[in-house]
Amino acid sequence: MYDNNTRNLTIAALIVVRHRHGQGAMKGFYFTETDKIDDAIFNAWLQRVPGFRRRKALAYRKREDAALSLASYLLLEHVLGKTNLVFHFNPHGKPYLSPETEPFFSLSHTRGIAACAVSETEIGVDVERIFPYDPEIAAMICCPAELRFLDGVTDKSFHLTRFWVLKESHLKAIGQGLSIDPRTIDILDEPDESFQLQTELPGVLLAVCQRPEVMETTWTHLRLIPGTCDFL
Questions:
Q1: Which of 226, 222, 156, 168 is closest to 197 using CA atoms?
Q2: β-bridge mates for residue 195, sequence order
Q3: Is residue 231 within 8 Å of 222, Cβ to Cβ?
Q4: How many other CB atoms are found less than 10 A from the CB of residue 201?
């Protein structure tokens, strides 16, 4: 189904965990550049995940995309310390664990990076590589105020990608996805405290959206143990 070429894969986990009983927040973004994902590791990942996630991964045409889908799920297992998770979905496709006993989460991936966010409150995460500015794409993403902003800046690619990841994280956090036209959201008018934008990975933007009173993040390396499905 996939070619046998090994892939370089960066695994990133945005782990945002709010403790119960008023103990404050432990939040973090964990990332690393891993060793090459060869056939043995890829097949081990396929066997490790439950059937619904395996089917989702194998639906991708490219092996790299399948590996990223597996990686984001395995990060969630690692964060929660549990295996064989059961997902439930809202009418717009947002996944949940059991709402009575489990935290909220959000998954995302782009070329070379997988991300996972976990919290006791609704949360959304999106990660994208900075893409070239295209006025037609901008017209499909941006409201009039954002388009005027883009007309006045030189780094249009960065800011268009920034608008997109922030909007996507917002739509994921509220559980609506693209059932809402992104042009109805004005990022310039949204409170900065609702978002966290990570720009430290070269050429990559990662955004998280959450209620301002629980938003706080730190950044730490998370390493995939070579040849395994496990993280350090």
A1: 168
A2: 209
A3: yes
A4: 18
Kindly state whether residue 102 falls inside one of the protein's structural domains.
Answer: yes
In a domain, 227, yes or no: no
Q: How confident is the model at residue 3 (pLDDT cuts 50, 70, 90)?
A: very low
Helices (H), 59-151: 63-80, 135-141, 144-151
Could you tell me if residue 228 is inside a domain? no
Mean pLDDT score, 129-150:
97
Residue 230 is classified by DSSP as -
**Angle between the 39-48 and 63-80 helix axes, to the nearest 10 degrees?**
50
Q: What is the pLDDT of residues 50-93, one digit of tens each?
A: 999 999 999 999 888 898 898 889 888 888 888 999 999 888 88
Sorted by sequence, the CB contacts under 8 Å of residue 95 that are 6+ apart come out as: 87, 88, 89, 105, 107
* Count of domains observed in the chain: 1
Length of the chain in residues, anyone?
232
Q: Which domain holds residue 216?
A: 10-221
- In 3D space, the residue among 124, 168, 129 whose CA is nearest the CA of residue 10 turns out to be 129
Tokens 């992104």 identify what position? 182
pLDDT score at 21: 34
Tokens of 175: 């559980």
SS3 state at 33:
strand
